[in-house]
Design goal:
By secondary structure, this protein is α+β, with helices and mostly antiparallel strands. It has one domain: Gcn5-related N-acetyltransferase (GNAT) (Aminopeptidase). 33% of the residues lie in helices and 32% in strands. It has an 8-stranded mixed beta sheet with strand order 1-2-3-4-5-6-8-7, with helices on both faces. Helix 1 crosses helix 3. It is globular. It starts with 13 loop residues before the first strand and ends with a helix. The structure holds coenzyme A. Coenzyme A binds next to strand 5, helix 4 and helix 5.
Amino acid sequence: MERVPATRLTYPDLRTERLLLRRLRRSDRHDLYAYGQQPEVTRYLLWDSYRSLEDVDQFLTATFQHYQLGEPASWGIEELATGVVVGTLSYVDFQPRHHRVEIGYALSPACWGRGYMTEAINRLLAYSFDNLELNRVEARVIPENVPSARVLRKCGFQRDGVLRENLFSRGAYHDVEVYSLLAREWRAMRMGS
Ligand SMILES: CC(C)(COP(=O)(O)OP(=O)(O)OC[C@H]1O[C@@H](n2cnc3c(N)ncnc32)[C@H](O)[C@@H]1OP(=O)(O)O)[C@@H](O)C(=O)NCCC(=O)NCCS
C-alpha cells in the first residue's frame, strides 16, 4: 500500500544540546528585529532587512497563520543558555506527495561560526526523516554564500546542480545551487557515526 505522509505540518519543540527549536511567539519580536535588521543577514536572502518592528509583526502574523493551517513556516531558534531567539529555521516548501521538503535558515551574526546552524539543521533532519518519514530534504543557496553551502555539506547534503540565473533580486540575476540529502543517505551516515 502506498505510504500516506502527513499533509499538515505541526511544529513541535525540537531540542538540541544548546538550542531549542520552537514555535515563534509575538514576544520574540525584539529578538527577531535585533538581528533581522542587519544587512549582512539578508545579503543572500530574498527578504529585505527589517526596517521596523512592524515588519517583524507582519512576518509573525503570517507565521501564526501558517502554523494554524499546517503550512510551511519557521521554527524560532532559542539559545538555551540565554533564552534569546537568535535565528529561524524554516520549511519553505513542502511536497507531501513527493515526500520532500525544502528548508531555509538565518542566524544572528553574533552567533555565527559556533556550529549553531549545523546543530539545528541536524535536529530538523532527524525530525524530517524519522518523524515525518520524508525522503528528501532540499536547500537552495546562492553560490557566493560559502558559509551556507559549508553548513549543508557538514550536514551531509550533496550539490545536485545549479539553476542558472534562476533569481532576479536587488537588480541582478543570480544562479541558485540546489543541495539535497536523501533519507537513505541520512540513515547510512548515522549508522557510520
Ligand atoms: C549561513 C549561516 C546560517 C551559518 O550559520 P552558522 O551557525 O555560523 O554555521 P556553522 O557555524 O554551523 O558553520 C559555518 C561554516 O562556514 C564556515 N565559514 C564561515 N565563513 C566562511 C567563509 N567566508 N568562507 C569559507 N567558510 C566560511 C565556517 O568556518 C564553518 O565551517 P567549519 O565548521 O568547517 O569551520 C549564517 O552565516 C547566516 O545566518 N547567514 C545569513 C543568512 C543566510 O545566508 N542563510 C542561508 C540562506 S541559503
